[in-house]
Design a protein that fits this description.
Strand order of the largest sheet: 1-2-3-4-5-6-7-8
Largest sheet: 8 strands, antiparallel, barrel
Oligomer: single chain
Number of strands: 8
Number of helices: 4
Number of domains: 2
CATH class of the largest domain: Mainly Beta
Shape: rod-shaped
Helix content: 10-25%
């Protein structure tokens, strides 16, 4: 009887020991989730081909010189061709100081043509010339695309200044203001479109008045 009891206890101990030592594979995997993730192969390996940006070279010179040609409408004296030259100094990226000189010839007034009398001005007095010094302010820098792969730097500016106009045998204190734009084909060349209003007082027809004389020009300038 005792031998049977000992045999049962021995078999029970052996079975209990086996249960303690045996660990199910699912439990082992659950206890080590990091190891399972590390063992999985990486499916996507990103390969980014970074492109170096190409910076446009801009001339750092501060002086700009050039010429212009266009039309000047002198109040009461018609619209005629005008030409001249400019010299500018760029104080900063935003501001520049510009000196300008322009020349034009004017026509007879409507009064002279209709009256049939003596002309009001001589041929020399009909020449319209001016010089001025102005302050410009650059705004809205950007790019103009000529083709899909070709772009030019651009800038828009406002400008105003003071000067003198030689017309009708006298010098007239003149205020000018306007706006314009530049297109840069390369780092030292600029193409310009400029619109100005030249204001001065005159009394040729017997009554003094302030005249507005509008000018529109195209120009080309270089930086040095």
């Amino acid at each position: 009887m005792e031998i049977r009891i000992l045999s049962v206890l021995l078999k029970g101990g052996i079975i209990a020991g086996c249960l303690v030592l045996w660990v199910p594979p699912t439990f082992a995997d659950a206890d080590d989730p990091v190891g399972e993730l590390k063992s999985q192969p990486q499916v996507i390996e990103p390969e980014v081909d970074r492109r170096e940006p190409r910076r446009r070279k801009i001339d750092t010179e501060d002086f700009e010189i050039g010429g212009f040609f266009g039309l000047l409408s002198v109040e009461d004296f018609g619209t005629n061709a005008v030409y001249g030259a400019t010299l500018a100094y760029h104080v900063s990226e935003s501001f520049f100081i510009e000196g300008a000189y322009g020349v034009s010839d004017t026509e007879e007034t409507a009064f002279e043509r209709l009256s049939g009398g003596a002309p009001l001005l001589t041929d020399d007095q009909r020449q319209f010339s001016y010089y001025n010094v102005s302050l410009g302010f650059n705004i809205l820098p950007g790019e103009a695309f000529l083709t899909r792969n070709r772009a030019f730097n651009t800038s828009f500016y406002f400008i105003a200044g003071l000067g003198s106009t030689d017309f009708a045998g006298d010098n007239h204190f003149t205020v000018n203001f306007g706006f314009g734009g530049r297109v840069f084909p390369n780092d030292w060349l600029a193409l310009r479109l400029d619109v100005r209003d030249f204001m001065f007082d005159i009394d040729i027809l017997g009554q003094q008045k302030t005249t507005h004389n509008l000018q529109g020009t195209l120009g080309i300038t270089i930086f040095f």
